[in-house]
Amino acid sequence: MDSAQKKHGTAHVDIQNIGGIDRTDVSFEPGVTVLVGRNATNRTSFQTALMAALGSDRVSLKGDAEEGHVELSIDGETYSRALNRDGTAVQTTGDAYLDDPMLGDLFAFLLEDNEARQAVARGGDLREIIMRPIDTAEIQAEIDRLRERRSDVERRLDEIDSLKRELPSLEAEKRELDDEIEEKKSELSEIEGEIDHRDADIEESRQTANEADEKLDELQETRRELNDVRYDLETERDSVAELRSELQELEDERAELSEINAGELQRIESDVERLRSKKRAVESEISELQSILQFNEGMLEDVDDEILSALDFEESEQESVTDRLVPDDTVQCWTCGSTVEADQIEATVDTLRELSRTKFQTVREIDDDLEELKKKKRAIQQQRQRRERLDTKLEQVEQHIERSTARIEDLQDRRDDLTQEIERIEETIDKREDEERSEILSLHRDANQLEYELGQLENERERVDDEITAIEERLAEQRDLEDEADEIRDEIERLRTRIDRIEQEAVEAFNQHMNEILDRLGYENLERIWLERVDSEVRDGRKTVSKTMFELHIVRTTASGTSYEDTVDHLSESERNVAGLVFALAGYLAHDVYETLPFMVLDSLEAIDSKRIAKLVDYFQGYCQYLVVALLPEDAESLDADYERITEI
User: Fold this and answer.
1) Which CA distances in Å does 555 have to 549, 558, 567?
2) What pLDDT band is residue 311 in, cutting at 50, 70 and 90?
3) CB–CB of 290/356 below 8 Å?
4) Helices 136-202 and 210-256, axial angle in degrees (round to 10)
5) How does pLDDT run across 15-54, given as a tens digit for each residue?
6) Three-state SS for 26?
7) Would you say residue 304 has pLDDT above 50?
8) What integer is the mean pLDDT of 570-582?
9) Least confident segment among 304-318, 468-482, 592-606
């Protein structure tokens, strides 16, 4: 047993109408408590009543009673169970020490019919007993759920790996598009310069072709507007990118702020008001104490023999005067009128002073608590204000993004409209232009085509940018997903090994303690009793499955020293009882029952001789804080005299 486990104090059990007990109450200390008596002296009834208080339902009412109860008090806590007869059944209600009695029933409440003891004695399924408290089906279901989660996480990680492989080609495509865009812009700039030069040459003959010139002016103006729209579009896209970056930063900052618990703030305000009320009450008490102290101190300082001789002790004056001093260091109490020693009054005044100092200390402690609560309140309020400011800013940025996105869509529509308008103007000019103007018209057409191609390239680059951004966002999830996958794998491994660990610990505990106890008890020709975990092929319906079993081995030696393996059936009743008790102890330790239940109950040890019982009890008491064992008087004589004994129940 872990020495760091909580140490318990005196246990008190109050029993009424349980088993063969009418009414009894018993107290016992941690350690071994021996219930000494012959058969039919209510020792087992006491043990089953204690088990009921601890949580077991293996309890019966007294034959002539309709109701009963048991109450266990320990460490300032009380656990009570009530029994009521309902026809042939007994209903049990109340708050027991254990929420679930299974571990206690299997491994701590070791009466004669205990399942762990009986499984050894009758060659039962020992592994089933050890593993019964473990919901193996639920563990397997949880493993299956975790595997599904792991598959989903791994699928997402595979997607990210695939996206990572796409990223270099997208970045290369973006660089190529950037180069093409710059090349188109350079070509467009050259054509625009040529158009401006041609426009200057044509100016002299403009009067002869006013209509054509007007169309050319319209074409040039439309192209300038298209340039402006393209510039505005690029500017707006840059603005959206910056806004999205700012939005992400705000969302990250917002995510770092914990949720504001309105109930916590309300609780703090309630605690502040409660402490303020308490402070006012204490300050009122201090004020009253100070008044009493000042009055008493003044009376003790000012009264002298001359004043005393002049005092008139009429009854009416006694009610209004609070301090009477008499000669020879005696004082007439101004509260009750009796004569007391002055030292007694001064001692009372000292007590009042000490009480006043205690009250002042209480006020200081309340002030400290109030200041701490105010700090928490300010912190919560500041966090709330910060969240509100962030929420407002987030809303503003989102609105800006919406407006900019809408503006981009409008500019794209305007760009398309202007491109179509330029084509229409060019068609008109084409019909009217002479050979001299056909060249400039061709330049305009080339410029318009470049504008269109430039727009297509910019749209394609925007698409590639969006894909790169989306991949980078997914890549940001990779570390979290990898951590999640590791956690899932660890949890699956923990669940897988939990069953193996408990099986292994139970087997190791049994073998270790069995060896130690056999060495102590000294059974002749019984060399060893040990458990082995084996995997067997068994039929499960139409299938053959592998199943873990616990095999119990008994090794004996002949008079000549030869070892041979025996069977459980050939064990003596004493040996069988010892093996069953050690098997229960192994389960007690493998499931850490001592962490939640410091009690163990032993009964029906008559098949074991007195000296071996003493050694067995001495061994078991090292693994639980309360060992309650029922013994016959002759068996009890062999136990340590320091063990607590209860002879009447």
Assistant:
1) 19, 10, 9
2) very low
3) yes
4) 150
5) 999 988 999 999 999 999 999 998 878 999 999 999 999 9
6) strand
7) no
8) 92
9) 304-318
- 115-129 burial, b at 16+ Cβ within 10 Å, e below that, comes to bbbebbbeeeebbeb
> If DSSP codes are grouped into helix, strand and coil, which group holds residue 3?
coil
Q: Distance between CA 250 and CA 475 in Å, rounded?
A: 20
pLDDT reported for residue 222: 85
pLDDT tens per residue, range 404-414: 888 988 888 88
pLDDT tens digits, one per residue of 460-485: 888 888 888 888 888 888 888 888 89
* Cβ burial 555-588 (10 Å sphere, 16+ → b, else e): ebeeeeeeeeeeebeebeebbbbbbbbbbbbbbb
**CB-based contact 147:492 (threshold 8 Å):** yes
Residue 433 above 80 pLDDT?
no
Length of the chain: 649
**Rounded Cα distance, 330 and 281, in Å:** 36
pTM for the whole thing?
0.52
Nearest-angstrom CA–CA distance, 302 and 590: 79
Architecture of the domain made up of 30-44+101-135+503-646: 3-Layer(aba) Sandwich (3.40)
Q: What is the 3-state secondary structure (H, E, C) of 364-412?
A: HHHHHHHHHHHHHHHHHHHHHHHHHHHHHHHHHHHHHHHHHHHHHHHHH
Show me where the domains of the chain are located: 30-44+101-135+503-646
Q: Which two tokens stand for residue 329?
A: 């260091």
Cβ pair 588, 615 in contact under 8 A: no
pLDDT at 207: 46
DSSP 259: P
Dihedral angle of Cα 374, 375, 376, 381, to the nearest 10 degrees: 90
**342-432 and 435-476 are packed helices; what angle lies between their axes, rounded to 10 degrees?**
150
Contacts of 101 (CB under 8 A, 6+ apart): 54, 55, 56, 57
Residue 21, Ramachandran bin (φ over 0: left; ψ between -120 and 50: alpha; else beta):
beta
Query: Which tokens hold the place of 520?
Result: 């102590």
Arithmetic mean of pLDDT, 332-360: 73
